[in-house]
## 1
Amino acid sequence: MNAISTALPLALAYLRERPLATLLNVLLLSLGIGTIVALLLTLSQVEERMERDAAGIDLVVGAKGSPLQLVLSTVFQVDIPTGNIALAEANRIGAEAAVRQAIPLALGDSYRGFRIVGTRPAYLALYGATVGAGRAWATPMEVLVGAEAAARTGLTPGQRFAGSHGLAEGGGSDPKHASQPFEVAGILTPTGTVIDRLIVTSLDSIWQLHTDAAREAPPKAPGVNGETADTGDKEITALLIRYATPMAAVSFPRRVNAVSGLQAASPAMEITRLFALLGFGVTALKLFATIMMVCAGLGIFIGLMNALNDRRADLALLRVLGASRGTVCLTVLIQGLALGVAGVILGLVLGHGGAEWIGQTVAQVHRVHLTGMTWIKSEFTVIGAALGLTLLAGLFPAWRAYREAVPELLGRT
Amino acid sequence: MIVEITGLTAGYGGKAVLALDRFNVETGQHTLVLGPSGCGKTTLLNIIAGIALPMSGEVCVNGTRVAALSAGDRDQFRGRHIGFVMQRLHLISALTVEGNLRLAQRLAGVRADDARIRAILGALGISHLHRTWPRQLSQGEAQRVAIARAVVNRPVLILADEPTAALDDGNCQAAIELLFDQAREHGATLLVATHDPRIKSRFAHVRELAA
């Protein structure tokens, strides 16, 4: 204890004496740590978010095209859909024995960048969303607004608005469905899932908006799910399917893909594929950050070795003044560790700040929530690695200080 | 008897550079060890301070057989009981004057005592320098700080290795007077090793070592 209380102030004084070298090493270390931490925070949150959004969805059935695009557009609501499929076809697939639940989605319109999704109440149940203010939709053209969409657009129950055709943000240039406005029936409670940034309505609303027949045709008798029973030439964008048994995964997608114009995509597989695609970039970034950290470790090692040579006279003096071998050794080790601790603290600030900044930037473009104000377990691995690295960097210089023969040093002074 | 040496041979790497049959210093009897460079003066001081171990012989300092102590205890003993003044008045450049003195207290395992530090700096007429960095000191000021550091732990023995070799005549006399003053003040015995004949007349006890 006494040795540490002696060595610590001296080590800090030595670091203060060389502010530039100290600053450089701390900065290099913290940039490496910051990059890795920001990366880990972002990835873990994106992954967690995607898993939550895809929970309960075993398969997506939609128009042929890229399966990744199909999953991105219908499950995560970030890409444009691959196309539409006939409602009759969808109903037939949804009725198969292998299917426990099939939720239809009809996309194509938006309001100020928030997608208007035609679906059934089961979609709300999928994400555990309940009506917070107002009531559920009862008639076509009534909508429920997701918590975040409501907060950003300021929509309140009873308010009317015109949707824009197209999913692009802004959507100002797209033709508006001004003649057929939507009316807000209620606001959904926050769920932390994709539904928070959606405006949800019945399928009928979408059909009414997009079929010419809707113009003058008298309302038809309600069928199953409260929708008009007649499928006619109606279309939907996709079907979110939950299997009745895990065994369905073996043959069901193949049966869907055999139908011309249809394809089946598994969200789990597509997420894996997406991260495999991103994998190279992530690996490169991690490698880059690791190289920065190793460089910092090397910088600390070289700095301590140089300082040791420049301070041989100090070393002799310390021993003359009564310092033990252990104390001078500790002084060198503490210098390395102090740089490590400073680098870790600054690196965590940079990493979390960076993740928060990424979150703010991405949130504006993609409406995906990321935050730096959270902790994940793998950060401790990074902290441990960084401190281990600085300890390692100080080990050899410290051993040299321990071994130094004082009479010879005194002879030289 | 503050220093009691019998049958000493000492050196480095198995090569003896110093052989002393008897070397005794009475408590309070300030002593000068005079000799040309290479005669083993520094080695003698190192042996007395427990920085180096003798090849053979008995060394007692203030009644303690230094060589019989463990390495850690030797370091502790040196910090507690022996003050050192070296030829180059080496101060730790990363610490202020005050910091250098406080370090000497800590390394000796003595409780940090700022009042004591201020008192010594005052006695040496340099209390205004307590927050100054070593590189800002003049040679005379650095000399005083080095002496202050040597006496801060109230040593029983002050070892000075060529304390005046780098000084001009005026500073040389001043430095020796300061050492005597401080030794008297703290009841310490002064043992100075030098090849500098200018200070010979100041000592009643002189031991000459041959090359």
## 2
Amino acid sequence: MGYVAVSGGRQAIENAEKYLNLSRLQADKSSMDIEQIKKGLHFLVDRVMGEGSLYAPGLAALAIKQSAGDTFEAAFIIRAYRTTLPRLGYTISSNTNEMRIIRRISSAFKDIPGGQVLGPTSDYTMRLLNFTLLDENPDEFRGICDDLLKSAGITGELPVSFPKVVEILRKEKLVVPRMRQESIEQDCFDITRDSLEFPASRSASMQTMARGETGGMLALAYSNMRGYGSAHPTIGELRVGYLPAWINHPYRKEPYYIGEVLVTEAEILSDITMDDGKPRFALGYGLCFGHNETKAISMATLDRAMQEDHPKYPSEDSEFVLSHIDGIESMGFANHFKLPHYVTFQSSLDRLRKIKKSGKGSGEVENEF
Amino acid sequence: MSFEYNFGFIDENAKREIRRKTLKAVALPGYQVPFGSRELPIARGWGTGGLQITLAIIGKDDILKVIDQGSDDSVNAVNIKKFIQKVTGVQTVIDTAKATLLQTRHRIPEEKLTEEQILVFQVPLPEPLRIVEASEKETRRMHAEADYSAMWLYLYESIVKFGEITLGAGYPVMVNGRYLMSPSPIPRFDIPKLNMSENLLIFCAGRERRIYAIPPYTSVEPIEFEDHRFRVEDFKGQKCEECGSAGTYLNEMVETGSGERKYFCSDTSYCKKVKEGKKNETAS
């Protein structure tokens, strides 16, 4: 008999948790080190920070350890932790020109001011299983370091900041103009304090996507790129780097530096549009925590798609996109169907039996829940 | 490293905001008030709405009861109760009459609640119009204009097609003659208990970020036609195998082996009370 009729649910829950914990630990007698996760699985850490909506690499690594690598679970643990923290203030909006770059590329121009900086990427690596990793030792690290420094060579210092590729086009008035700083500060919606409303403001839409689930966003963006939509993105610029964060000092009332966050930013150019009666490139923008290029490109593509005046496809409908990309919500709801639904099902049974008795209808009954 | 959580887990500013939005909901019976829903350590869809209300309004002296499918021992109810107890230290009970604050999923207890009690519902889908309109922007307009024609048409079509209204649990109700409201997936059997109830009823959907309420002594009517009335689930001729009650909401079970259908009260605390009452009668 199901788990409602029998009492003793508490014991069963506690044992289930112990069992899960055991299966996490049985792989090795020694527990996994948080630092190792932070450095060795940094893409995973970045993804969890982004979807968990909290920039805290150490906590994200802990969540990954606790959830045995389930990204949905790990991001969920981080979000729940976030609820215990008070909102103390907002950072001053920063200009991504100031980003300390580790990687920036453009697929729109061969040569860009400041140059293309490939940085750490697997883009041009053959995806062959690397069996030498089966047995790695500390010397390996030193070897790679040596090799990289020798072969890459030091070409001189990198500039502190790089000009934005999109600015070149903007100067020529080929892309839609940038919003004014004051209106950005004034109009900023906070999705963690207010429920999303539709049509959603651009800031609300950006925030929702910044913490969206990578896979979910990719699926919707891909549908648009592939044919259920019209955005054919050209990547104006993709940057990965550290962005300084400033807040207004509560007493001195002047900007105060609080640290930097690793972010990925994508600016895509797509389709010619009419802006104030002038033909221009429409711009799609994506920015997320950590190094996650797939997500930034997906976000920029969806941002562009949602600017359609007359949405035709799901990826162009902001209510459709923004209501379904949150991993914590979608995974929670999909899994809640495992909970007992005896009462509601009994209610549906009653309807179906009644209809059958009356001898009418094809027997389809609503069970919404 | 040990970690101490705030009373009620959620930070105080957030609790205050949830209480403010709840007051607004009480002032506008049946109207869905948007709020900045927080994530909790239980998953979305598992009662984060109900739980946020409970955590925001619970006090140290409250006596808490949590049920799922009418049962105190259901895994989810146990889990939620355990969490609330951990972050508040309040006393919990099974006896409905002794509780000051009750959180429920899918049922209203059989015993009548009083003015001294608050019942908090976990809500999966707060929008009663969702079955006829997918867009939130559009359903908000429909509520603003009290345009419920699509819903009436839905009921009518259902009668034409099946000879019956096919809606099972979560039957839409009209609150205070103004807003159409989803009572959460409670069975139709529980719907009449909402009308002119003595206690405050608060509904909250965490994932969908909506709070709504029915203040005490408010009119709540299931939508129905003059010539096709709203009907509750039919348990005629059945009674609970455990306590012998007829006239309670029953869950049916198929016995392993014999394949026989048996019925049990869904409200396990009520069932226990009735059974013990009978035992005491025979003893004295």
